[in-house]
Design goal:
The complex is a heterodimer of chains A (about 300) and B (about 240). Helix content of chain A is about 35%, strand content about 25%. Chain A is elongated and about 80 Å long. In chain A, strands 5-6-7-3-8-9 form a six-stranded mixed beta sheet, with helices on both faces. With about 300 residues, chain A is of the alpha/beta class. In chain A, helix 3 (about 95-105) crosses helix 4. Chain A contains eleven helices and 13 strands. Chain B has one domain. By secondary structure, chain B is an all-alpha fold. In chain B, helix 1 crosses helix 5, helix 3 packs parallel to helix 6 and helix 6 (about 145-175) packs across helix 7 (about 180-195). The two termini of chain B are about 30 Å apart. The chains are: A alpha/beta (about 300), B mainly alpha (about 240). The interface of A and B includes residues 53, 84, 89, 101 and 104 of A.
């Protein structure tokens, strides 16, 4: 089996007596897009800093391509392109100089550096503004330039903090296509911290939700939506309210109108109870047309998980 | 070395693009370059043209050139760190593979280099002012004409600039605002003045004394810079970002 690009084992970090990250266990497969979700202050930045070897863990371990960031921080950072939350562009340098600095850090030299910088400027539509100082750029332009700089280094792992922040819808689509092409064609791994749940649902292979330093959910957006399902929506040609009320449902299950015409919603305690529901409907000659597991969006999952944790 | 070159390239490009830096540089150089000539005129017109007065005059030039250097370094060194923090670039820089030593080295070399340059430009302004003020060659009136002056200009000034650049960089890690960092960095000069204030030694403009002073300062600077390279660690900077 391939070595995961990123691996956390019981990873914890505390500051003084306050725990910022606690017992994080996670693997991110190479060549995938991982979405790291969580409210502000949940521990995302601390986790990223530990991945980059900027903070040593208080307990547990991190591995990036099998490397220990604490002992081999420079090698880990060399294998990583980063877009920080604040983007981190030098206002007094031009767009070109900012990219050139990134390219120099990555070890690109001479004609190769110039070619890479020019290509990156064109890729994010900033070629015409290459000689302008970044201080005059809009938030969206800065974001695009920051992304271009993160991509310049051709590192196998990209850590992007809120990459779509400040981008208009057209640029968001451009970025999505770009990131997907990097993964599909370049085999790169993307670790993305984001609050844009719809975007995460579209491009992430896996997502993890962190709340108060703990990983409270992890899986593909589809799995998370379906894996926590506790309801199915059914359509029957011969089921009325009286028939529904007399259906022999499994323990803990309940049935009621879904709100859509002719559709019923059955809440279940266990996902496998759906088989008993089907049997009951067939026995009652309800005329089953369809049974669809209720699929929740990532936003629904996020809000329920984060909300429940916060409430707890 | 290539990483250090990359950092120096970035710091220099930023310095050139920073109007505030350039303003501090030119104001310090102009004031410290022109003031001594006015003061000399004042000393001469008050009749002080004896042997004692002549001894004071090179000292005056020297003090002003050193002061220009000190002011410029004390402004530049903390600002190089504070700007990275306020602009959010420190987080990016730390996340790159750039070694700690190159980040630190790039900053202190730029700050010390700019300070040294300001000292030399101040000397040039002093020469021009002396020539214009006297309507002829003013070489004999500036300290570069003396071997002591050359030693101070070419060796003591860069050593002092390197010392202050290191102190200023570290001060900026603890003092978050520009003005406070500048004042605390200036206190670093006061530490060097302690042996004189405590009457452990007195300033003499003899070559042997100056060579000894240069040697002692070189050791102090080497120790401070080495300590700086040893202590300037990413973990420390990240905790500083968290504050």
């Amino acid at each position: 089996m391939d070595e995961p690009a990123v691996q956390f084992r019981a990873l914890s970090r505390s500051f003084g007596g306050r725990s910022a990250v606690s017992g994080l266990d996670l693997e991110v497969q190479a060549g995938s897009v991982f979405g790291f979700l969580g409210p502000n202050g949940a521990g995302k930045t601390t986790t990223v800093r530990m991945m980059l070897g900027l903070l040593p863990p208080s307990a547990g371990s991190v591995r990036v391509f099998g490397l220990d960031p604490v002992r081999e921080g420079e090698r880990v950072r060399a294998a990583t392109g980063v877009l920080p939350d604040a983007v981190g562009l030098y206002d007094r340098l031009t767009a070109r100089q900012n990219l050139e600095f990134g390219a120099r850090i990555s070890g690109l030299a001479g004609a190769r550096r110039a070619t890479a910088v020019d290509a990156a400027l064109r890729r994010v539509d900033l070629w015409e503004r290459r000689g302008d100082r970044v201080s005059g750029f809009s938030k969206g332009m800065r974001q695009k330039l920051g992304i271009a700089r993160a991509l310049l280094c051709e590192a196998p792992l990209l850590i992007l903090d809120e990459p779509t922040s400040g981008l208009d819808p057209g640029n968001i689509v451009m970025l999505r296509d770009l990131l997907l092409s990097l993964v599909q064609e370049g085999g790169r791994t993307i670790f993305m911290c984001t609050h844009q749940l719809a975007e995460a649902q579209r491009i992430c292979d896996m997502v993890g939700i962190i709340q108060a330093g703990r990983l409270v959910a992890v899986g593909s957006p589809g799995e998370l939506g379906a894996g926590t399902r506790r309801a199915v929506r059914i359509r029957c040609s011969r089921l009325d309210a009286r028939g529904a009320a007399t259906l022999p449902l499994p323990q803990g299950a309940s049935i009621g109108p879904s709100g859509n015409d002719g559709e019923w919603r059955v809440e279940l305690e266990r996902a496998e109870d759906v088989e008993s529901i089907v049997a009951a409907l067939v026995a009652a000659a309800a005329g089953v047309r369809s049974i669809v597991p209720e699929q929740r969006s990532l936003e629904d999952v996020y809000l329920s998980v984060v909300g429940a944790q916060a409430h707890a | 070395m290539r990483d250090l070159g990359t950092m120096l390239w970035k710091e220099t490009a930023e310095f050139i693009g920073n109007r505030r830096f350039l303003r501090v540089f030119f104001i310090a150089v102009l004031i410290m370059g022109l003031l001594p000539e006015f003061q000399k005129h004042g000393i001469e017109s008050s009749g002080g043209h004896g042997r004692g007065a002549v001894d004071i005059l090179p000292m005056l030039d020297l003090a002003y050139a050193l002061l220009a250097s000190v002011i410029v370094v004390a402004q530049t060194a903390p600002d190089l760190v504070l700007r990275e923090r306020s602009g959010g670039t420190l987080e990016y820089l730390l996340a790159t593979r750039m070694p700690d030593g190159a980040i630190f080295g790039g900053k202190i070399i730029l700050a010390a280099g700019v300070g040294y340059l300001s000292g030399l430009v101040t000397v040039a302004v002093q020469m021009i002012a002396a020539n214009l003020g006297r309507g002829g060659p003013g070489w004999s009136w500036i300290y570069l004409a003396l071997p002591q002056g050359r030693l101070i200009a070419l060796l003591l000034t860069p050593l002092l600039a390197a010392y202050l650049a290191t102190v200023g960089t570290f001060v900026a890690l603890r003092v978050g605002d520009q003005r406070g960092a500048y004042l605390v960095t200036m206190l670093g000069v006061g530490v060097l003045a302690l042996p004189f204030l405590l009457h452990l030694t007195a300033i003499r403009l003899t070559m042997s004394w100056l060579w000894r002073a240069t040697g002692v300062l070189a050791v102090v600077v080497a120790a401070v810079v080495a300590l700086g390279f040893r202590m300037f660690r990413r973990e420390m900077l990240v905790l500083y970002l968290q504050e």
